[in-house]
Amino acid sequence: MTEAFGADQAVQLLVDTLIVSLKVSAPLLGVILVVGLAVSVIQVVTQIQEMTLTFIPKILCVAAVLVFAGGWMLATVVEFTRRVLTSIAGM
């Protein structure tokens, strides 16, 4: 019976970990997706196939997202880590 309870906790920890990682990565991935699509459309319309044109806007937008959402991302990860460490201590 103890093993099943431990397995339930492990599955719940895995689910929580995946949810937190999805929440934290979603802003960055969303911005990269939108910027990449916009740059691709601009490249198709203007027929400019410069490789640096795809990377520079993405890097700048990722830096902007980290400036604006970095505090929230860090707070989310720290809160999750506290919950996990507290639950480990309570076992």
By DSSP, the count of extended strands is 0
Radius of gyration: 20 Å
Order of SSEs, N→C?
HH
Mean pLDDT: 89
Could you tell me how far the N terminus lies from the C terminus, measured between alpha carbons in angstroms?
15 Å
Structurally, the number of domains stands at: 1
Given the structure, what is the number of helices? 2
Shape: elongated
Uncertain runs are: none
| β-strand amount | under 5%
Q: Which structural class matches the secondary elements?
A: mainly alpha
Largest sheet: none
Kindly state the percentage of residues in helix: over 70%
Topology (SSEs and partners):
Blueprint: H1 2-46, H2 52-89
Characterise the protein shown here.
This protein has 91 residues and is mostly helical. It has one domain. Helices cover 91% and strands 0% of the residues. α1 (2-46) runs antiparallel to α2. The chain is elongated and about 60 Å long. It starts with a helix and ends with a helix. The mean pLDDT is 89.
State the gist of this model.
With 91 residues, the chain is an all-alpha fold.
List keywords for this structure.
single chain; 91 residues; mainly alpha; 2 helices; 91% helix; elongated
